[in-house]
Amino acid sequence: MAFYSTSEFKGGLKILLDGDPYTIVENEFVKPGKGQAFNRVRIRNLKSGRVLEKTFKSGDSVEAADVLETDLQYLYCDGESWHFMHLESFEQYQVGEAAMGDAAKWIKEQDHCQVTLWNGQPIAVEPPNFVILKITETDPGLKGDTSGGGGKPATLETGAVVRVPLFVQIGDTIKVDTRKGEYVSRA
Amino acid sequence: MLKARAALQARLRAFFMARGVMEVETPILSRHAGTDPAIELLQTRYTGPGAPAGLPLYLHSSPEFPMKRLLAAGSGPIYQICRAFRDGELGRRHNPEFTLLEWYRPGFDHHALMDEVAALVRVALERELPREQLSYGNLFRHYLGIDPHAAGEAELRSLAIEQGIPGADELVLEGADPWLDLLLTQCIEPRLGRGCLTFVYDYPVSQASLARIRPGPPPIGERFELYLEGIEIANGFHELGSAAEQRARFEQDNRVRTSGGVSPLPLDENLLAALAAGLPDCAGVALGIDRLLMVTEGVSSIEAVMAFPLDRA
Fold first, then answer.
1. What pLDDT does A144 receive?
2. CATH number of the CATH domain containing B237
3. Residue B163 included in any domain
């Protein structure tokens, strides 16, 4: 088992706490001039995405988490799992619903995703920041309205629903920012 | 920022000049070092004439010991602005190399010196700030409702958990002092010195460091700290003058170092000899120039006030 001492702490370091993998978001060294030093850290649970704070005594060690982020291509969904492949090693990975999270509603076959592997198993999937998707359902807009003010819901080919300007119609393809779940432009 | 630093140091030198405090220089490289278990030292080595086999030297963590030797030799009031060095310290408020202002006032106790620190900070900030002053005991009573001189490890631990310090329930800390440090830095310090000068004085004897002890109950270490905008700026003592007591504290420090798995350090016999010869009754204080600049310039990172912090040194 590998361990990290608090002096190795920095943003992005992957550690294991209570059996879960975490990434360090922020690390602050706190020390009174004549007293005990501490590291106050903000850490993100790589499985749940939850961010929490923790205090360590400086000099303490924490177990390292074997975590790897890798670029995988999405192949298909068999109804239960999403299948991905590494384009160089051709290794295939099966991702369950929990690890897919929101990514499932944004990606189409052949899209590339950033996948977090813990001990070789996928635990989180990051969709591309921007995706181009076709609108399959939306109310017809009012003729002549090009302002985009207000907007209306539109269902995309992947099932996701985003707000779009009134002039956007069924069959249009649009660019969406997956981090905010927001319409960017027509594509 | 360079101009602000140069102007600040010029104001500080003028302040001491006007008050008849003499500027001195003492070695940065020293054969001995402070034994404070909370401070790790950087070490180097001189080899050459006088020491063909090599002489291990410490980069001082403060100029305290040689300045006390000057005082014992009859220097009168003295100050020094110098670089000081500490291993293992890097963060928003720490750089392993930093600028320290240290000064000593024969005939002052820690209260008289707090007055002078306040006057100096007024000159540094170029404005008058209100001043508040709390004993360490009242500080903890006021903010956390406990008596830090009486509270034991278990009570402090449950208080830390109750205060919601994240991860406190899993921390392993030995004795009351590290828990007091945790509560101070997490729950109290951020609230100190907001728009004012906060002096904290009269510390538990276990945190007296190099301060003299006033008999109790409870016995008190005559030490003080200054906080500005949630930042620890200065630490001062009504200085311990007894050579025997100083030797006992060095030895105690070394016992703590050894039990903490850190190697003990050689005692500074030169300092002990000077104390035995007679240190005038005096108070002394060390003030972090970089942190003071952080406050005058309104920045939250020590890197912002240094031309070349560690990663560019």
1. 57
2. 3.30.930.10
3. no
pLDDT reading at A70 higher than 70: yes
Considering the domain boundaries, does residue B189 fall inside one? no
Confidence band, pLDDT 50/70/90 cuts, at residue B275: very high
- As for how many domains chain B has, the answer is 1
B33 vs A11, higher pLDDT: A11
Query: Which residue in A29, A52, A53 is closest to B91 by CB distance?
Result: A29
**Is residue B188 one of the residues assigned to a domain?**
no
CB contact under 8 A, B90 and A55: no
Whether B27 maps to a domain, the answer reads yes
pLDDT higher than threshold 60 for residue B253: yes
Q: Read out DSSP for B176-215?
A: HHHHHHHHIIIIIGGGTTSSSEEEEEEEEGGG-TTB-EE-
Give yes or no for a contact between B28 and B83, defined as CB atoms under 8 angstroms apart.
yes
Residue B3 clears pLDDT 90, i.e. is over it:
yes
Contacts of B172 in chain A (CB under 8 A): 57
pLDDT of residue A145: 57
In which residue are the tokens 């903010």 written? Answer: B143
- Per residue in B153-179, pLDDT (tens digit) is 999 999 999 999 999 999 999 899 999
**Strands A152-156, A161-164: parallel, antiparallel or unpaired by DSSP?**
antiparallel
Please tell me the distance in Å from A5's CA to the nearest CA on chain B: 12
Cβ within 8 Å, pair A58-B38 = no
Q: Mean pLDDT for chain A?
A: 90
Could you say which residues from 18 to 77 on chain A have a Cβ atom under 8 Å away from some Cβ of chain B?
28-38, 40, 52-58
Position B211 scores a pLDDT of 93
C-beta atoms of B185 and A30 within 8 A: yes
Q: Which whole number is the average pLDDT over B44-65?
A: 94
Q: Is residue B35 a contact partner of residue B253, using CB atoms and an 8 Å limit?
A: yes
Q: Which residue is closest to B34 within chain A, CA to CA? A: A34
CB pair distance less than 8 Å for B182 and A36: yes
Inter-residue long-range contacts of B304-310, CB under 8 Å, 24+ positions, other chains counted: B304/B1, B305/B1, B305/B4, B305/B5, B306/B95, B307/B1, B307/B2, B309/B95, B310/B90, B310/B95, B310/B96, B310/B97
Chain B hits for A9, Cβ within 8 Å: none
Taking residues B110-123, what's their average pLDDT? 97
For residue B94, give the nearest of A7, A29, A38 by CB distance. Answer: A29
Query: What is the reported pLDDT for B260?
Result: 78
DSSP annotation of A35: S
pLDDT at A146 over 60: no
Task: Find the CB nearest A35 among B166, B168, B177.
Answer: B177
- Cross-chain Cβ contact A31/B165 below 8 Å: no
pLDDT of residue A149: 61
The residue of chain B with its CA nearest to that of A59 is B88
Q: Domain containing B91: what range? A: 2-130+195-312
